[in-house]
Amino acid sequence: MAESEGSPLAFSTSNLPLKLYINGQYVDSKDGKTPLAVYNPKDGTLVSDQVPLAGEKDVEAAVTAAEAAFPAWKKTTANQRRDILLKLASLIEQHNKELARLARLTLGAPWASFGAFEGVVCSETFKYNAGWTDKFAGESFPQENGYLQITRNEPLGVTCGIVPWNGPLAGIALKAAPALATGNCFILKPSEKTPFAPLALGALIEEAGFPPGVFQILSGDGSTGALLASHMRIRKVSFTGSIATGRKIQEMAAKSNLKRVTLELGGKSPAVVFDDCNLDNAVTWCVNAITANSGQVCYAASRIYVQKGIFDKFAAKYAEAMQARANAVGDPDEPSTLLGPVVDKAQFERVCGFIERGIDGQQGKLLVGGKRVTTGNTGSGYFIEPTVFQDVDPNAEIYQNEIFGPVSILNSFTLEEEVVQKANATEYGLMAGVFTQDVNKALRVASEFDSGMVGVNCISLVHVNTPFGGSKASGVGRECGRAALQAFTEPKTIMINMQYT
Ligand code: NAD
Fold this sequence. Notes:
- The protein is α/β, with parallel strands linked by helices and 501 residues long.
- Helices cover 38% and strands 19% of the residues.
């Protein structure tokens, strides 16, 4: 639906949402903590210093409202929940451009290369989960032992989601939609760096018909997240973010009430490109994978291994395409821009630090990029050239760590067994890709990758109907697909004595 159809979104870039959304209402924080400030990464200017920082009283108010709402919400019919989720999905679709503008204000992601995608993932995920409400059935078992045994998938109660800044809209739906579809109440804690699109959802949640307390939004920083993760009456935390914070979340969950935990953490995803691949296809996927959202994507293909026979050809095409992407860097508010800034000064300094140490420490040969972009009107923003290091030392920092910027490494290999070993030799295991026209090799390598997701002739993508998540330190549990519904429910076993008269 076009942006202008239907009623306008209650908020805009000149009327920012600056209140918490608790119990069906926009309210001021009760804790009186100093509000948070956010800046526009395209020029470093202050956007607002009035973003509410939810504290203990606000968390308590949200949990109390959710507890009050839970019994009735749990008992709504599957069709009622379906209709409300579908209404929210269509409102998000209708307001996708306005929501993307609110997200872009502090994220800097251009509409053409990321903004549109984000909103689509968000609305599609609500639709997908709406379809499950009357299909997520339990099981029944053979009753020859004299008992009819059945299971029901029971909601957990009050649940919460803590999300990062790099996917401020999509990240919400991956957690909220399965939680709500299965009858849980859900409290969202967006990132302190991208609060506006999530806070604006409050108006749409109300319009969609969610009863007060069912779906609430608390803006804040890590301190708010910690209050949720350690809360004694929240039964589940679904977290997406860094490994360091993920560890703390798991610890807080264990030390409080053993709440259920799902962790979606970082990645350093390998793309393995064999001699027999379709070269242009491999180059296109690898370039898009590390430049979308300025490389600030958990499953970005940041390590590329190319077989020796085509290495030079691949390197030349990849370098050319990355350079072309550098020429498309610009103001994220311009429709033609494909590559915007990184999210803020701290992220800019972090990514530039990796690049500088990579160059100074000769961790590899700089093939493309390596500098701040200062062309046109980008000089005061946090723009970084797409950057590629070639022949990187496997022990080097840029090889081992998630940089979370438009920076990749390009190494060569000879044998299949050798590259599988190299691809698996980090603590990450989120996604991997294999590029070849040999289906046997593709399936062999796909099964050897130690990662939660594998692309064959593609990489760095998500489908809402299949499990999404990582192995090893990249995460615990899965989002998307049926797995996400399981993560927000518990089977209850009911045993019926068939001999009872
Ligand atoms: P982060 O860990 O700094 O923050 C994530 C969220 O956790 C934010 O909302 C933050 O306020 C909150 N938080 C911070 N400290 C906390 C604490 N002590 N207790 C509770 N909550 C706390 O991560 P980030 O910098 O926002 O995001 C980038 C990271 O997220 C990258 O590592 C990236 O790979 C990862 N990520 C993973 C996925 C995935 O699905 N696997 C998707 C997107 C991003």
